[in-house]
Amino acid sequence: MAHDHDHAHTHDHTHHHGDLDWTAMAPHLEAEAELYTPLYERALAWLGRKQTEPGLIVDAGSGPGVVSALLADAFPGARVVAVDAAGPLLERARERAERRGVADRFSTLAGELPRILDDLDYPADLIWASNSLHHLGDQRAALTAFAGRLAPGGTLALLEGGLPVRFLPRDIGIGRPGLQARLDAAQADWFAEMRAELPGTVDVPEDWPQLLASAGLRPTGTRSFLLDVPPPATDRARSCLVTTLTRVREACADRLDATDTATLDRLLDPDDRAGLLHRRDVFFLTARTVHTAARIDAPR
């Protein structure tokens, strides 16, 4: 689903890679981030108790700007800069800021992370990086670059990890029970290959507080936030699941056996009564983890 964007434990990790049609993808990215809005709002409320009254907020890997707008709402005294490599998504972000009445303190910056952050007018008081870091080959170097763009006392909020999305019971009456566990395994293998193919990739243990500390920051907390849409799921949740699982099927078909592929096809078939659009047992349950760290040294 999305980084705000897109992610494979039912997030679409193809975001940022290849020649994608961002105009076509934008509605899905927006719909998914809107589905996650209650989770993001709770995370930002928690964050607001750590970083009070920031002047400049950077949404690093903003996509179409759903969370950028939420940041503007949560911190009404702040200027928000949405940063992304995809121009069409930033155009959507600007349109959203206009609709939400925050355009007077909202801007965008187009370019590849982390080096594009050097183009900021001044250091940030808060950098929000949601599922964008794992698209960068050298994550430790990227964190160091992020830290270097923080003002003294500023906070880096890193959303990485959590729990894979759960959306059906173990036994769904078609195919073999336990489909989601096998999808998780297939996507984990796919994700490892994606990471291995990134330019300049460096393997590091995903101990995010330790990595933040190694970037010269002081870890200030880790907390996970739940999104729980009980069965029968909303139309928005079902639509997001269909779009995401379609992409998962494309990416992982060669990692699944014929039975699981056939089960996925039935779940994705809009005319099949056993499909995701019709079942009463569809739900949407996941968690996202946010790690925070502060810059306490004087600017270099």
Structure description:
By secondary structure, the chain is an alpha/beta fold. It contains nine helices and seven strands, in the order ααβαβαββαβααβααβ. The protein has a seven-stranded mixed sheet with strand order 3-2-1-4-5-7-6, with helices on both faces. α1 packs across α8, α2 packs parallel to α3 and α8 packs antiparallel against α9. The protein is globular, with a radius of gyration of 19 Å.
The overall strand count is: 7
- The pLDDT mean sits at 91
| Biggest beta sheet attributes | 7 strands, mixed
Low-pLDDT segments, ≥5 res: 1-18
- Determine the number of helices (DSSP H or I, runs of at least 4 residues): 9
- End-to-end Cα distance, whole Å, is 37 Å
Short structural summary:
The chain has 300 residues and is α/β, with parallel strands linked by helices. Helix content is 38%, strand content 21%.
Main attributes?
single chain, 300 residues, alpha/beta, seven-stranded mixed sheet, 38% helix, disordered N terminus
Topology:
Blueprint: H1 22-35, H2 37-48, E1 56-60, H3 66-74, E2 79-84, H4 87-100, E3 106-110, E4 124-130, H5 139-148, E5 150-166, H6 179-196, H7 208-214, E6 218-229, H8 235-252, H9 258-268, E7 284-294
Parallel strand pairs: 1-2, 1-4, 2-3, 4-5
Antiparallel strand pairs: 5-7, 6-7
